[in-house]
Amino acid sequence: MKEIIIKKSAQVPMDLLLLADPSEAQIRTYLERGTLFIAVSVEQVVGAYILLETRPRTMEIMNIAVVDEHQGQGIGKQLLMHAIQMARRQGMYKLEIGTGNSSISQLALYQKSGFRMIGIEHNYFTRHYDEEIVENGIHCRDMIRLAIDL
């Protein structure tokens, strides 16, 4: 596997972020308040995430995405571990992440990385997104909320 460098970025890889969230308007709202990190391999952006403080001592990963052809290579796990490290460095007690009920591989990755399910926001995606989202043949309706204690 090639070396991955994760760093803050002012350049926004919108096409990449849209892989994880189909709403550019939603992405822009949390980009305004959060910090964007990118994963670079051989001068190519292969992944990204946005970290945002949502409450005192709590941060949330608002978007995390890996370029399609680089998925399954451990980059998502590296991004998650980096986010945990960044939140700890900033004195946070908890890191949260949310994903769709249809995002089966993401749910597995988050739990393997130590995140635990803390709740479900029913009909989140049907309320907040105009377009229907279908993954793995499943209609994405509900937001599964997960967290890890730091």
| Proportion in β-strands | 35-45%
Summarize the biggest pleated sheet. 7 strands, mixed
Q: Give the low-pLDDT segments.
A: none
Overall average pLDDT: 95
**From the alpha-carbon coordinates, what is the Rg to the nearest angstrom?**
15 Å
Structural class: alpha+beta
Q: Give helix % range.
A: 25-40%
Distance N to C terminus: 29 Å
Overall, the morphology is globular
Helix and strand sequence = EHHEEEHEHEHEEE
Number of helices: 5
Record the strand order, biggest sheet.
Answer: 1-2-3-4-5-9-6
* Record field, number of beta strands: 9
Could you walk me through the main structural features you see in this protein, from its secondary elements to its overall organization?
With about 150 residues, the chain is of the alpha+beta class. It contains five helices and nine strands, in the order βααβββαβαβαβββ. The chain has a seven-stranded mixed beta sheet, with helices on both faces. Strands 7-8 form a two-stranded antiparallel ribbon. The longest helix is centred in the middle third of the chain and has 15 residues, at about 75-90. It starts with a strand and ends with a strand. The mean pLDDT is about 95.
Question: Topology of this protein?
Answer:
Elements: E1 5-8, H1 14-20, H2 24-33, E2 35-41, E3 44-55, E4 58-66, H3 75-89, E5 94-100, H4 104-112, E6 116-121, H5 124-128, E7 134-135, E8 138-139, E9 143-149
Parallel strand pairs: 4-5
Antiparallel strand pairs: 1-2, 2-3, 3-4, 5-9, 6-9, 7-8
